[in-house]
Write a structure and sequence with these properties.
With 617 residues, this protein is an alpha/beta fold. The protein contains twelve helices and 30 strands. Strand 17 and strand 18 form a beta hairpin. Helix 4 runs parallel beside helix 5 and helix 7 runs parallel beside helix 8.
Length: 617
């Protein structure tokens, strides 16, 4: 049985520091047949943790009737996370938000039949609501509590639990009564891992870690979080990667890949871990998308989340890369690969620096050339984070900005952002037992055995120094990266374009590939059956690859048919159920979509009849 603890730096599993680089995948929005592919895509993207939101309305469609089978088998999804060697954050709710209808709460809570009570109130200290919530959390915990890292035996991947979502009410007394009860439910149900919230410090809940939600001004926000919560890890538990698409409105705009890259670097510069929400978009099936309070349509309540959720997520509904995938993959891969360095950074060392978000009143020219450098140091090495202008704030792509770093020994080091919104430079990091990275002016990406991988702008020189010996290298403009042996370390220097086709696995670094299968087989960019691999020992060789199929096969479509509605009109459909009077659809087992009512009128005399039809406003 493992033990999990934490301090102001990071979480610790049996005393060993763990740095969480997480992304959210909603199993409820992805067909079960594609669950393994989504988990594998997250691992390829550099994530070491997956956040799993458990949707109450999915698992208890009728009061007291729980379903954890088939497409709702959350346990199987978490087992796939464990098989991939990743960690898991379990988001228990009861409220999830995230575009779900009623925030993921079951529709029967609003119905006129039991367990609905006349005094039912949601997300508060209300006896009927808490009673229903307690039953659900107990049922959920029974499915997964033996999959916690703290469980007996080998345990499982669940390292954190998140309670509720975005409960931003400033009533401390109510918070203790409601959120405190939720925490008690989790513990009594057998969940023993640390519990984190996403309330942005609106209230203090005993026994919970305070997480942060949002993507604005993260360097400042997480420094403040560290100042008021110095003994707990800083974590952005909900870092929005994409805005929701809404029916009847133009596709969501932003945030851009550059803005998101900058957000993640700001979080790390403040000693923060993060969870990308979402990583995979998925789809809202069967009318499960809810109303969007932020919709731009003039009619109140008319904006509803589109089926695809978001067209800007890092991983799109069909499983392919979104517009921010490759840019974020550079950051997340670095954060996972060098988590040992980030987890050991001194949380109390917060030097004065330029605010990376200058005043909007400042001249545009000044904002375009503002470069903030944040130095962070710890027992496993140091990092200099360079944060340039936010493209969304200056309205144009950032220009290459140069900086001259003054090192502790008085020497100088030239660094260029290459037009990227943010960059990071490693210092004094042990790569192997005999090789110490003194500094690297390129962006560090990964280390696999004796191989160190970094990236920079094509045609722009940079420097890598190992064991006091510095070499100058220049990323190429073609498809072939720079590969050199230096001080017993194989250094691979990629251009930014080459990183999109370079994949880090336990087998090494696969170059010029469009991806890697879960079994380790690389996929080539063309018809060739081989790709180049740099093994963990630094050996460069060609390995078998899956070629790209020539041409695109046409989908096979059968004749279109129309489902007749005659049996519904006549009342002969076996799906009809006799009821004594008007009833809520949720109580009839149809919490989403549409329903048919067939009314038979009986009158003993010729007179007017009044017909009352159910209506959900």
């Amino acid at each position: 049985m493992a033990s999990i603890t934490y301090d102001g730096r990071s979480f610790m599993l049996d005393g060993r520091r763990v740095w969480l680089v997480s992304g959210s995948i909603h199993y409820a929005r992805v067909p079960r047949a594609q669950w393994r592919d989504r988990v594998h895509a997250a691992k390829l993207a550099g994530l070491n943790t997956i956040e799993v939101p458990a949707v109450w309305s999915l698992h208890e469609p009728r009061a007291g009737s729980f379903d954890f089978k088939g497409e709702r088998d959350i346990r199987h999804f978490i087992e796939l996370i464990a098989e991939a060697g990743l960690r898991c954050i379990l988001r228990t709710g009861p409220f999830l938000g995230g575009g779900y209808d009623f925030g993921g709460l079951p529709a029967w809570l609003t119905g006129p039949t039991p367990p609905k009570s006349d005094d039912m109130a949601y997300r508060t200290h209300n006896a009927p609501f808490l009673e229903a919530t307690s039953r659900y959390i107990t049922a959920l915990a029974q499915q997964v509590r033996d999959m916690q890292v703290t469980a007996a035996g080998e345990g499982g991947p669940i390292i954190l639990a998140q309670s509720e979502t975005g409960w931003t009410c400033g009533d401390d007394e109510l918070a203790q009564k409601y959120l405190g009860e939720l925490g008690r439910f989790l513990r009594e149900a057998g969940l023993s891992v640390p519990v984190i919230n996403s309330n942005n410090l609106w209230t203090d809940v005993e026994g919970e870690l305070d997480g942060w939600s949002g993507r604005e001004h993260l360097l400042s926000m997480l420094r403040q979080l560290g100042a008021v919560r110095p003994t707990t890890p800083r974590m952005v538990i909900d870092l929005p990667t994409a805005d929701l698409d809404v029916w009847g409105e133009p596709a969501a705009e932003g945030p851009t890949a550059g803005t998101l890259t900058r957000c993640l670097v700001e979080a790390m510069a403040a000693g923060g871990q993060f969870n990308l929400a979402p990583f995979a978009a998925g789809a809202h099936h069967a009318h499960t998308g809810g109303a969007n309070a932020g919709g731009r349509l003039p009619k109140p309540g008319a904006a509803f989340v589109a089926q695809g959720g978001s067209s800007l997520a890092p991983l799109l509904e069909h499983g392919g890369p979104g517009p921010s995938f490759h840019a974020l993959r550079r950051v997340t891969t670095f954060a996972s690969q060098f988590g040992r360095v980030l987890a050991a950074l001194d949380p109390d060392y917060r030097p004065v620096t330029l605010d990376p978000h200058p005043s909007p009143e400042a001249p545009k020219a000044a904002r375009q050339h503002a470069l903030s450098t944040v130095y962070a140091t710890g027992s496993q090495g140091s990092v200099v984070f360079l944060i340039g202008p936010d493209p969304s704030e200056i309205g144009t792509a950032p220009k290459p900005l140069a900086a001259t770093l003054l090192l502790p020994d008085g020497s100088h080091l030239e660094v260029n952002t290459h037009g990227q919104p943010a960059l990071w430079c490693l210092f004094d990091v042990n790569l192997t037992a005999r090789a110490k990275l003194d500094h690297c002016t390129f962006g560090a990406l990964a280390q696999v055995g004796d191989v160190f991988v970094c990236f920079g702008a094509a045609g722009v020189e940079g420097q890598v120094s190992i064991n006091g010996s510095a070499i100058t290298l220049e990323p190429t403009r073609g498809k072939t990266p720079v590969i050199v042996e230096h001080e017993g370390v194989t250094v691979v220097v990629l251009s930014e374009a080459q990183t999109e086709h370079a994949w880090i696995t336990e087998h090494g670094v696969d170059l010029n590939a469009r991806g890697v299968r879960a079994d380790g087989t690389p996929m080539s960019l063309g018809a060739t059956k081989r790709v180049t691999r740099v093994s963990p020992k630094g050996e460069v060789k060609d390995v078998e690859a899956e070629p790209l199929a020539r041409g695109a096969s046409k989908p096979l479509l059968d004749d279109w048919t129309c489902a007749p509605a005659d049996d519904y009109v006549s009342g002969a459909s076996p799906r009809f159920a006799a009821i004594d009077g008007p009833e809520d659809l949720a109580a009839l087992g149809a919490p989403y979509g549409y329903g048919w009512y067939r009314v038979r009128l009986k009158a003993s005399a010729a007179k007017k009849l009044k017909l009352v039809a159910p209506y959900a406003g």
